[in-house]
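Project outcomes to date are best conveyed with an example. Our students and postdoctoral researchers have been running inverse folding experiments weekly, and each run begins with a structure described purely in tokens. The record below, which covers 215 residues, was selected by the lab manager from last quarter's runs and is presented without edits.
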């Protein structure tokens, strides 16, 4: 992903259930990375609820580049599209929702179906929660023992996440920080270690940013 660019997606997978005129609607939401993962989730839910009346699904990937849905036998426009619309309105991406329905004996009508499927999809998204994902640089920082304690405290103050520390002839810290803030760590290490420390970037990976809960 691009340095400094945040991606809002689901924090995890979750399920929620609502009832409408004795029909059960079981919503399941999960983050996905591609269409293959989304299709695997759909297949898994269909297998789990193979006795259900309908397994309606939708997924929204890469900002809508890949967006698909299925009414799974419900009247056209009353199920898959409402679920997809809930995904779009969440302002998130890379997510899949499957809503399973067990018919309760009372017809809901087109408007009732739209409301029920939308509500079940939203309930599943709310249960999963959202995360703001960002590119983080994973760094290997080497410093002397005398600099380690101060450096550890200052790294935390910068918002860096210390993943590990190995104590040998020197201290080797594995830490992660937003990719566009690596220079701040380099400056800090240089200052605290009097120029004797080093910083090596190991990789870029996606992690939840500090403000992940403030969506």
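After processing, the design step wrote out the following sequence:
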């Amino acid at each position: 992903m691009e340095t400094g660019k945040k991606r809002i997606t689901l924090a995890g997978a979750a399920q929620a259930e609502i009832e409408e005129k004795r029909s059960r609607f079981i919503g399941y939401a999960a983050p996905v990375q591609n269409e293959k993962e989304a299709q695997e989730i759909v297949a898994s839910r269909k297998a789990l609820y193979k006795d259900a009346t309908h397994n309606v699904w939708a997924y929204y990937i890469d900002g809508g580049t890949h967006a698909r849905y299925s009414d799974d036998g419900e009247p056209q426009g009353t199920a898959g599209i409402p679920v997809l619309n809930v995904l779009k309105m969440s302002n998130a991406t890379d997510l899949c929702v499957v809503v399973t329905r067990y018919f309760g004996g009372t017809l809901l009508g087109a408007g009732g179906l739209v409301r029920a499927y939308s509500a079940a999809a939203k309930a599943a998204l709310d249960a999963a929660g959202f995360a703001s994902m960002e590119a983080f640089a994973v760094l290997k920082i080497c410093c002397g023992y005398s600099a380690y304690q101060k450096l550890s405290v200052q790294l935390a103050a910068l918002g860096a996440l210390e993943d590990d520390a190995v104590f040998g002839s020197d201290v080797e810290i594995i830490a992660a920080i937003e990719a566009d803030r690596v220079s701040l760590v380099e400056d800090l290490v240089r200052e605290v270690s009097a120029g004797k420390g080093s910083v090596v970037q190991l990789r870029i990976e996606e992690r939840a940013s500090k403000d992940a809960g403030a969506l």
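The first helix runs from residue 35 to 48. The longest strand covers residues 130-143. The training component of this project remains on track.
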